[in-house]
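Listing S7. Sequence submitted for prediction.
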Amino acid sequence: MAQVPENSKEIELWLKLIRADEVGPVTFGRLLQRFGSVEAVLGTSVSGLMKVEGIGAKTAERIAASRDKFDSAAEVDRADKLGVWIVHMEDPRYPPALRKIYDPPPVLYIKGTLDRADNLAIGIVGCRRCSLYGQEQASRLAHLLAAAGFTIVSGMARGIDTAAHTGALAAQARTLAVQGCGLSRVFPPENAKLFELISASGACISELPTRAEPLAENFPPRNRIIAGLSLGTIVIEASLRSGAMITAQAALESNREVMAVPGKIDSPLSQGPHHLIKQGAKLVETVEDVMEALGYVGEQLKDQTALTAQETTAQVETPLFEATRFNLKGHEKTVYEALGKEPLHIDQIIADTNLPAGAVNAAVMSLRLKGLIKQLPGNLFSKR
């Protein structure tokens, strides 16, 4: 079991202040700027607190009355038992891109690790009730971007988020999941295994207390963290009023790139991405499109990702590359050669290849993520 990193210094003081009544990220930042340290804020009188922008008499009194109520020592102990460490925004380990947003979370709870490589991150978000097309595009783009060296950031929700994390994991790369609840909980519950896999190869992150429940009010603030951790955010299938669109707006407000994958013109799930494209978001089909959207950063990465940029089959009938580019071996090669343009049911593939069901399912997943085959309704598969 990997050793859990140490908490930031004075983390108990930071927890006391951020859990005080009326203290959110913006107010916390103003208090810290005014008094220079969290310890100084905790020792300031009501009249002193009132000198801070946006804090009147009643707010100052509520802050003063509640700033010692949160049992931060017990919270640190709970986190430690969960294998979670807590970092504050003055710690050099705190994600630098997130620190630059208007309202950065003063503290982050982390199950897993943060890495300098996470500075090169792309957010992928979308609706929970996505189509098969949306799921495939999320997995494919996440897989190819992760293979190119990007950390994939999403929210571990059902649908597009889960597909994005799964695509990154299949590339044996880093992925970060930002939760809208405390890290003693997993939401949705069926993603418990995914939670563990992400924690082992990246991190599950929250700004909320360990025991916080997944309430609806927690998710809009969560979305700003996804955008804040990322150089740019890709939206794949979303209604006009959705969490994914909130994430896109947060990205714009933080001067980050917004990208969108187009969908069917008659699908309600396409309304969000198409609206963003009309407003100037980069239309994304390939890794190369992402590179272009990232401007200078993308230019510096093009040499590294040239091959990956070609390894995509966004919306075309025939592959843009030969299967041999992936150096397919073993079960992947066997399953790929068994498929043609006519769809085959998974049971037929198993029969034709004479391979165990588990081996066929694993090979099919890998081939889908590489863009070599597509899945159709009814558990049918064919070459692209």
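Caption to Listing S7: primary sequence and predicted structure tokens for the chain studied. The first helix runs from residue 11 to 18. DSSP finds 18 helices and twelve strands in the chain.
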